[in-house]
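Worked example 4.2. Below are the chains of a multi-component assembly; read each line carefully before continuing.
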Amino acid sequence: MADVAERVGVSAMTVSRAFKTPDRVADSLRERIQAAARDLGYLPNRAASQLASARSMTIAVLIPSLTNTVFIDTVAGIHQVMHPEGYQILIGVTGYSGDGEERLLETYLEYNPDGLLLTGLGHSAATWTRLRGLAIPTVHMMELSDRPDIYAVGLSQIEGGQAMTRRLIERGYRRIGFVAAQLDERTIRRGEGYRRAMQEAGLYDANLELLSPEPSSIGFGAELLDRMLAQAPDCDALFFCNDDLAQGAIYRCRRLGIAVPDRLAIAGFNDLAASAWTVPALTTVATPRFAIGREAASMLLSLLRGKRPERTCLDLGFTVMERETTGTRT
Amino acid sequence: MADVAERVGVSAMTVSRAFKTPDRVADSLRERIQAAARDLGYLPNRAASQLASARSMTIAVLIPSLTNTVFIDTVAGIHQVMHPEGYQILIGVTGYSGDGEERLLETYLEYNPDGLLLTGLGHSAATWTRLRGLAIPTVHMMELSDRPDIYAVGLSQIEGGQAMTRRLIERGYRRIGFVAAQLDERTIRRGEGYRRAMQEAGLYDANLELLSPEPSSIGFGAELLDRMLAQAPDCDALFFCNDDLAQGAIYRCRRLGIAVPDRLAIAGFNDLAASAWTVPALTTVATPRFAIGREAASMLLSLLRGKRPERTCLDLGFTVMERETTGTRT
DNA sequence: TCTGGTCATGTTAGCGCTAATATGATTATA
DNA sequence: TATAATCATATTAGCGCTAACATGACCAGA
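Applying the procedure described above to all four chains together yields the following structure tokens:
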């Protein structure tokens, strides 16, 4: 920077201003500075800028997994909003673990992020304590909170699970199973919604639930279908906690010659890209992941600018997509 | 840091050493320093560390898209190697554009990354020039290079396309179409491989190629299938440039009542997670994306440590996975 | 003509850390 | 016991930038 300043014959401060607050430098001078910077191949040093200004122009995003498209879609939404504003995203991967999140948060705080985007609300006690002591704006994604001191953008996972289950009940299904893997916070809540809907209809039966802590995948969905059919051979519909599992189940039914939805209806959660295209097309709960990322980023941006957002909690809802893997039970 | 030093009664330098080079501080003292740091909630400031040491412990990774799982898998591999070594990854999204990459590279250089991981070799002239002038170790991912001054980890996209096409020819297919979207560097090369194989068998016909610049998706694969059938109704096999398109084609065939592979064989590229599970299961070229990320990161790590890797170019190959969407033409 | 305001630019100091070097204490060797 | 080598810790200076304030030029209005 000093070189550029010398070349143009101004002080370093003026060069700094020419980059950060161009309107506070005379037009002609600014152009000369920019030309000199280009000639010399000068690029500002972010670390120095950060150190001097106490702003990092960086936000830390903590997600459970890099390979689950649900979170990548969210990150893409965040990126879309933050990148044009000059903010850099640091992605931390917690591996669905509270301890992992705790350690990562510590690591990422060393980068002095200006803001924090966290997944879910099920943080460890230590994480919550640390967050409370932090002066960094934080927005929680994917779920809803009624606490006025917490910023959240998401949807009610419980109501999502409940809505899908109710819809299946309306369609005449009675022995509706719930099949879940991974068992993170959101999965548990979808199960809770399922349970409420079944109980309010007087249909609840613990034997219709199959929960596994193993990671979700299409292949594992196929396996869980087998297990569920063994556990509750009389089930007439299966609600999978996510679309990966449900897609695996569809393929497995096809192999086994199980008619979907006539013999067995299948429903998923998330509405992944492939779900509208499988044969039969998957009935699922569409979640606005990309919008969650966008809106969470926008909310964080407001906070970074010192504005209070209108709402502390933004509910982006969900949509039950009835496709071909469910029908009407007569 | 000064607070911690004062509390323990040592100099700031000793606190710094206790964190960065723990073995150069006496055991008991180190423990007291760590205890004091914990008490005071001290976390090192990376920006200051970076400024003072001229090392950012950061590497910039430029990928074309965040939503294409191919690149995310690669990033996951990079992350797996780099995270335990204390390196932070900065992800830049070029949007499949050379200009985008050029601008991003400039932006990311402001962070003074210790290393660079770029996708492909088809960078703009300006990017190549800039890279040459840079003292930052750089590894190119996904493709191969025979230039001794370039580090690359990947596979031969041309040979991948050629191998699959040859296999189809061996299986008796004669009117093999090539269907591509997105038309990035890798797609073009796969097409080149297809063309070589068709030409060497004397089967090449320009009318069997369908290239579209639009982004790939399952839905677009379905549409391209329709277009291809209109363009070359006599085709007996279709080689899609990636699995998204191929999966869309499988579903579309199912809807149209086209027997796969009897009336029409289908092949893809990449071997995405779902491809082994579709019905019929997709014949495709499996690419070691995760390993590419891991190995590229390892190679970069060697370079960062001042070691010359044994090879400048690491070929991780590919595997033709013959599944159910192709058979034998009699 | 003077006063006060506005604007463009300059000066000073310091952000939090670490490289390089200095210092002093301890240990090994002759 | 003297000397050198080794180790643990301290001191100094500076990484590249920007906040805060200072300066001086210019202009409007009385």
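Take a moment to check your reading of the output against the notes. Chain B touches chain A through 45 residues (CB under 8 Å). The domain at 157-286 of chain B is CATH 3.40.50.2300 (Rossmann fold).
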